[in-house]
C-alpha cells in the first residue's frame, strides 16, 4: 500500500514541471558498457533501447560525439567525458521523442566552445529580473544542483555565472567562494564550469584599499591574491564577468582608465590559470544624444587593445533586450576584438513569467544578420528560480532549452527546437505537439504586436518593465529612462529619427543595411519607428495610413494572444491537469495584458495623432484615464501575479 502511495505521489510530482524536459519514464534496462562516468550513469538509469558502448576516441572534436548503430549495438564515441555525456543525452532525447528504437548515425560538435548562463542572483537570494522565485543558489541543495546540472548538460550548456552582474563585493568573500566551490563540485562532472561576476571596486570594499585603479600595484596585487584563493578552491574556475561603468557600477573610467585597461588588468591576473574575462559593453550615459549609439562610440576606439583572454559581451540589441531591436552595431564595428552575444532568457521586457513568448525566433533573427561565426560565444541571462517548475511558466522552460540548443547549433530552426521541447516536456501526441509548436513559433511576433509593433521600444512602466506606460515621466529623471525619449510622439508622428538627418545611429551599420534602414520606403516595418519619425498619415505597404496600421498591429496582437488561449483550451484532453490549468491561467493573463497594452498605447498615442481608431477593428474597452491610474506592484524578484487587477 505504502509503495502504491509513494509511486502515485511520484507520478503526480512528475507533472508539476519540476522535471523540466527530462521526464524519463521508468528505469533504464539497457546494457551499457565502456567508459565509466556520468554518461554511463545516465544511460544505465534511463536508457531502454539497444546495448550501448561508450568509447574514447581522439579524433572526435572537443565535446563533440559520433554515434553509430551496427548490428543492434550503438556506440557513442567522443574525445572528452563531456562529449560522451552529450552523446548520451542525444540518445535520451531521441528516446523521449519516441525515436529510441531506430538506428542512430550522427556526428555532432558544439558550434560555440562557451555556452554560458548568466544568473542575476544576489547574495540575499533575490534575483534581479527574475520571475521564478528566489535564487536556486541561496540554500545549497545537492539534489536541486544535480538536476540543474543535468538540465544544462542535456542541452550542452557548459558554463554558469552564479551571481548578478550588478555584483556585490561580498560575491568574492570567503562565504560566497565556499558556496561557489560546493556548486562547482556538483557541476564539474556534467562538464559545467563556474564563473563569477565581480564588482570592480572590490579591492576597496572588500580589501580595504583606497583605490581600485587598475594600474595601481596594490590593486593588481589584491586581485592576484584573490584569484589565487579562488583557484585553490575551484581549480577549473572559468573566470570573471564584469559590468563596469554602467548604470552606476564602478569601473576603470572612475580612475581615468579605459575599459581596455580595466579588462586587461583582470585578464593578466587570470591568464596563468587560463581564466577568461567577459567584459560587458552595456554602457550608456545620460549626456548622449542617442543611447543606441554609445557602445560603438565607447568601444570601437579600443578595438585591438584587449588581451586574448578578454571577450566583449554585447547584448543582442543596442538598447536593452526589447521585444524587437535591430542587432547591436558594435558586432559589426569591432574587427580585432573577440565578442560574444548576450541574450536575455528571462523575460524582463516580454511579459515576465506570465506571457508565453518563445524566444528562439528572436535569437534566430539576430543570427540572420550577425553571422554566428563572427562571435566567439553565447551567454543567456537565466530565467531560473526556486519555483517548482524552475521558470515560473511551464513554457518559459522552453527558452532555457532553446538557448542551450542554439548555442550548440545556431542553425537549428525554431520549429525544430520547439518540437523537441514539446515532445519531451508534454509527450508525443501530434494533436498536442503540432498546434502548440505553431503557438510557440508565433508567440514572439504576437508579443511584439501587442506591446511594441513597428519598431516601437522601451515604452514600459517607469517602475517595472511589465506593463505599458508610454506617458511615464518623473521630476528630475534621466530622459533616457522615460518612454518619451524613445517614442517621441508629437502632432506630426511617432518614432525616433535615427537616420542621417536625425541621431545618425543608422550610420553605425554596414553600408548596405545603413541605406536600407535610412530610407523610410525601404526600412523593414519591424524597425520603422526605431529609425524614423513616421508621419501619422504616411502610406504603409499595406495601403493603410501609418496610424491605421499601428492600430491594426496592436489589435492583431490581441487576437493572436486570444488565439493562443483558445488553442490551449482545446489541448485539455492531452495535458495533465496541473500543468493544463497553470498554463491556462497564464494564457488568460496574457490575453488580458494584451488588451491592456493595446488600449493604453493606442489611447495615449491618439492624443497626439488625433485620428480615429479604424472602424474595422475591435475598439478599446478601457479609458485612458483608467489606464493611467492603473498600477501594479512588482519587485525584482516577484512575479507580477496581479497582472490585471488594481
Ligand atoms: C542587471 C537593464 C536591467 C537591469 C540590468 C541591466 C544590465 O537595465 O533593467 O536590471 O541589471 O539591464 O543588463 O546590466
How would you portray this structure in words?
The protein has 646 residues and is α/β, with parallel strands linked by helices. The protein has an 8-stranded parallel β-barrel. Helix 7 packs across helix 8, helix 13 crosses helix 14 and helix 14 runs antiparallel to helix 18. The longest helix has 33 residues. The protein is globular. The site of 4-O-methyl-alpha-D-glucopyranuronic acid has 10 residues, from loops.
Spell out the key features of this protein:
alpha/beta; 15 strands; binds 4-O-methyl-alpha-D-glucopyranuronic acid; five-stranded mixed beta sheet
Q: From the helix content, strand content and strand pairing, which structural class follows?
A: alpha/beta
Helix content: 25-40%
Shape: globular
Rounded average pLDDT: 95
Regions with pLDDT < 50 over 5+ consecutive residues? Answer: 1-13, 641-646
Give a list of the ligands. Answer: 4-O-methyl-alpha-D-glucopyranuronic acid
Radius of gyration: 25 Å
Largest sheet: 8 strands, parallel, barrel
What's the β-strand tally?
Answer: 15
* Spatial strand sequence of the major β-sheet: 6-7-8-9-10-11-12-13
User: Could you give the distance between the termini?
Assistant: 49 Å
